[in-house]
Amino acid sequence: MSKAEIKFHRVPSVEEAEVDPSEGIIVSKGTRYELNKLSLGAPVSGTVYGTLLNYRGGLAELGEAVHEPPYQEPPKAPVLYIKPRNTLSGHGLPIPLPEDVSQLEVGASLGVVIGRRATRVKEADALDYVAGYTVVNDVSIPHDRLHRPAVKQKARDGFCPIGPWVIQCDAVVDPDALGVRVYVNGELRQENSTTNLIRSVARLLADVTEFMTLNPGDALLVGVPEGAPLVRVDDRIRIEIDQVGILENPIVNAMDGVPGGGA
Question: Boundaries of each Fumarylacetoacetase-like C-terminal domain copy (predicted)?
């Protein structure tokens, strides 16, 4: 068992627990829970930042287009965006499919949760600023353009399930060597590894804090692998990240009503 922070659904604050990421077991205040029987809230309290084009395969997919307008060249610094609070959701909670959209893109990402104020940190010291890790589904409406903020495609209510917990950093041996898998309705649809990151976790933290401060409770997503699966209403998504946890969510019609705002 490993120490973690967890937020039970509709409970206002996170609490400490012990978890078994591979078996989906939670022990909190002496009570044992099975993850597959729970809905949970998003266990982060700060701002959630996404990172574009940080997997080698994703950058390779752009091909020669990365050297043409409007890009001109591969990015020299991290390309960031924000998943605002209305997007936040938790394990087991539904992801809404908007009425005018036929499918959504699954964005499996490792979330790095900040433990103390980080400004201009050195790469060698960067992991000392990490409180723990979590699983994130950076949901988006499929779109092609990367040179402008995709607010309409990425910032819808419920478009950022996070969880099921934040596992303490000591439980993860090497954040740059974690298997990432996406299952849709029990079928393996995507498999990758953080070994394929362009910027390692420490390098990404160093590069980001070179120009902005990350505060305790903030979460920095390391990026989404290429070949993100597409899903529709009634599909069930399961994202697994080795040593970190399992995040599951169903897709429902937006008309059914889905709470946003960090449930």
Answer: 47-252
Q: Has residue 15 been placed in a domain?
A: no
Number of compact structural domains in the chain: 1
Extract the tokens encoding 52. Answer: 């574009």
In angstroms, the CA 40 to CA 24 distance is 13
Is residue 125 in a domain? Answer: yes
Identify the residue whose tokens are 């390098």. Answer: 203
Domain coverage including residue 64: 40-256
β-strand 187-193 against 179-184: which pairing, if any? antiparallel
pLDDT digits (tens, 9 = 90+) for 153-202: 999 999 999 999 999 999 999 999 999 999 999 999 999 999 999 999 99
Q: How far apart are the first and last CA of the chain?
A: 26
Mind giving me the DSSP string for 223-250?
Answer: ---SSPPEE-TT-EEEEEETTTEEEEEE
CATH number for the domain that contains residue 161: 3.90.850.10
Element (H, E) at 95: strand 95-97
State the average pLDDT over residues 79-103: 95
